[in-house]
TrEMBL record:
<feature type="domain" description="DUF1023">
    <location>
        <begin position="31"/>
        <end position="197"/>
    </location>
</feature>
<dbReference type="InterPro" id="IPR010427">
    <property type="entry name" value="DUF1023"/>
</dbReference>
<protein>
    <recommendedName>
        <fullName>DUF1023 domain-containing protein</fullName>
    </recommendedName>
</protein>
<dbReference type="InterPro" id="IPR029058">
    <property type="entry name" value="AB_hydrolase_fold"/>
</dbReference>
<dbReference type="Pfam" id="PF06259">
    <property type="entry name" value="Abhydrolase_8"/>
</dbReference>
Length: 275
């Protein structure tokens, strides 16, 4: 998490959702400031049966949204996910919404606070209510974006929530999410976020990881992705599983298989040990 862009500590006005063209793309909302928020629609969400809403983490804002040099920019991730959803289910009507609809934290210092997520969650809830009621809506949060998703779940109209590389979801337990839908989680094999502090005091800290045993999330396989920002890598098992979840094809999602711990040779188990 490297500091970039202006500070995000100011309170923002609610986004106004509606369909419009701007910056050469289809917008659902945009506040038009350099440090501001943008919500883009890929595909036709108005007629889609399945809509994935991507909620990114730190250091994303209108000023760098269209920067082609950012290989992991949310827009590129959304394009990869949309293409994967169409590949998995070519006959389905699908759409992806890129929701940079909150003032994202800049750097680690702001990322430990839930304040940006608390402010952004309200607008994320409003987006889920703006989208057509006939569609299945899946929130896909990455990093700090999973905190925003967690704080929005209790009031949003959402079928599934996917937490990728989560520092915690802004609550102390699954019950505090107030969400009866399907919660999914994934953590890449070399994602450093596993070392993020798990405290929760006042507005500081985001609580336990949804990957924790007993949290209640369904953990899925990511394959051999690297680092913290590769969950949408084209062709990866990670992005294929995200697409399967967004399409409601749960039986096709590959779960993480946890191997049973090996007992030392000769340990008494009630069974004979063959040497």
């Amino acid at each position: 998490m490297v500091a970039a862009g202006p500070s995000t500590n100011s309170v923002t006005d609610p986004l106004r959702y509606g369909r419009a063209l701007g910056y050469g793309v289809r917008l659902l909302a945009c506040d038009g400031t350099e440090d501001g928020r943008i919500v883009e629609e890929l595909g036709d969400a108005a007629t889609a049966d399945h809509i994935a809403v991507l909620v990114p983490g730190n250091d994303n804002y209108l000023g760098n949204y269209f920067n082609q040099k950012r290989a992991t920019r949310p827009r590129a991730n959304a394009q990869t996910l949309l293409a994967t959803m169409r590949e998995v289910a070519p006959g389905e009507r699908v759409a992806v919404v890129v929701w940079v609809g909150y003032r994202t934290p800049r750097g680690f210092g702001e990322a430990v606070s839930r304040r940006p997520a608390l402010e952004g969650a309200r607008d994320l809830v409003r987006l889920t209510r703006f989208l057509p009621r006939s569609a299945r809506v899946t929130l896909v949060g990455h990093s700090y974006g999973t905190v925003v998703c967690g704080l929005a779940l209790g009031q949003g109209r959402v079928s599934d929530c996917v937490a990728l590389g989560s520092p915690g979801m802004g609550v102390r337990s699954r019950q505090e999410l107030g969400f009866s839908g399907n919660l999914w989680a994934a953590l890449g094999p070399s994602d450093w976020i596993r070392f993020f502090p798990r405290g929760h005091v006042g507005e500081i800290g985001h609580g336990p990881s949804p990957m924790r045993s007993g949290y209640g999330a369904r953990v899925f396989e990511t394959g051999d992705i690297r680092g913290h920002c590769s969950y949408y890598r084209q062709g990866s098992e990670s992005v294929r599983n995200i697409a399967r979840i967004a399409l409601g094809r749960y039986e096709e999602v590959t779960p993480v298989v946890v191997a049973a711990p090996r007992r030392p040779l000769g340990e008494f188990t009630g069974e004979a040990v063959v040497s």
